[in-house]
Specification:
Blueprint (H helix, E strand, L loop, with lengths): L7 E4 L8 E3 L9 H18 L20 H13 L8 E6 L7 H16 L2 E6 H4 L7 H7 L10 H11 L3 E7 L7 H10 L7 E2 L5 E2 L6 E7 L4 H7 L1 H12 L9 E6 L10 H13 L2
Parallel strand pairs: 3-4, 3-5, 5-8, 8-9
Antiparallel strand pairs: 1-2, 6-7
Helix pairs in contact: 1-2, 3-10
Bound molecules: flavin mononucleotide.
The site of flavin mononucleotide has 15 residues, from helix 3.
Length: 286
């Protein structure tokens, strides 16, 4: 039955993921969200079968004679594998923002990814400092965003980030709170990556639309103040309004929550264990 090639291997991802395969699916297909989830399930099933070093998707792969569209083939391919594993597992894009190799946030990242792995999710990490991500909006991109030069191309680094969002089911953000917000590098990621025409645009009826299809986002941020202090002063609520309501739910993310890992003053390790346990559980129960 599985004699002819229909799946195209696109090579290795720049992450710990072993491979990426491309299946011809109409991107306008209304079932795209479902398709993506099943695709990721297939992908992680495949990963479990073959070690990361093996990057070539083997042919032959399934072909279904008599099918009308590539999407039909796609769904049949998925159906072969969906019974073999839990299709609820997600692929998570983690935005990690911290300049130092020896930080509490790095431990949070380790604990969170340990939880994700144990739950069977796959992930890739965008370490914004390590990537040298350019967080400043320049004049060319600004002119594009405000409509002075609407046909200007999307910068390559921004397009790469949008691709990572496109292949994810979930987003996670891990960062220290600086002056009651995320570090400027991550703020610049939002400024530049959530572009007009992608994160939001207006259809012919003037309705706001988005091309982002993310099931769940989680924001894990550490603070020097305790969570109680930040709730009491209203700062926690303002952080949620901006990060969750505006930057995530406002661009089509279906569900988003923020977890504040408080009491993390430099030199004070008393809340460390409790907070790391929380981070692990957030990954495990995503
Ligand atoms: C520049 C800067 C600004 C900070 N601003 C805040 C703040 O507004 N609220 C707060 O609770 N903690 C603040 N902190 C404390 C950090 O959030 C805390 O040290 C950090 O979460 C600890 O994690 P790390 O070891 O990974 O850096 C600030 C720290 C720095 C360096």
């Amino acid at each position: 039955m599985h004699d002819d090639a229909r799946i195209v291997c696109r090579g290795q991802l720049p992450s710990d993921l072993c491979e990426w395969i491309e299946i011809p699916v109409n991107p306008e297909d209304a079932r795209e969200g479902i398709a993506k989830r099943h695709f990721n399930a297939f992908f992680s099933w495949r990963r479990a079968q073959y070690p990361p070093a093996q990057t070539i998707f083997p042919t032959p792969v399934p072909h279904f004679p008599g099918r009308k569209t590539p999407a039909d083939d796609y769904f049949d391919i998925i159906n072969i594998f969906r019974d073999r594993r839990n299709i609820d597992n997600m692929h998570v894009y983690i935005l990690f923002t911290h300049p130092s190799k020896i930080s509490f946030n790095r431990e949070v990242l380790d604990a969170f990814t340990r939880g994700l792995k144990e739950a069977g999710h796959t992930y890739e990490i965008g370490d914004l400092y390590a990537m040298g991500f350019k967080s400043e909006m320049d004049a060319d991109q600004y002119h594009r965003e405000v409509g002075l030069d609407p046909d200007a191309p999307i910068p390559h680094d921004v397009a790469r980030e949008q691709e990572k969002i496109n292949r994810a089911d979930a987003l996670a953000f891990i960062y220290p709170v600086w002056w009651s917000d995320c570090p400027a590098k991550l703020k610049g990621w939002f400024d530049r990556v959530l572009t007009y025409g992608y994160a939001y645009y207006y259809d012919e009826n003037g309705q706001r639309q988005t091309k982002i299809s993310i099931r769940r986002a989680i924001v894990i941020c550490s603070t020097g103040h305790t969570g109680e202090h930040l709730e009491g002063t209203g700062i926690a609520e303002s952080m949620r309004r901006v990060m969750i309501n505006d930057r995530l739910l406002g661009v089509g993310v279906k569900e988003a929550t923020m977890e504040i890992l408080g009491g993390m003053m430099p030199q004070d390790r008393s809340s460390r264990e409790t907070n790391l346990k929380k981070a692990y559980n957030l990954g495990k129960n995503l």
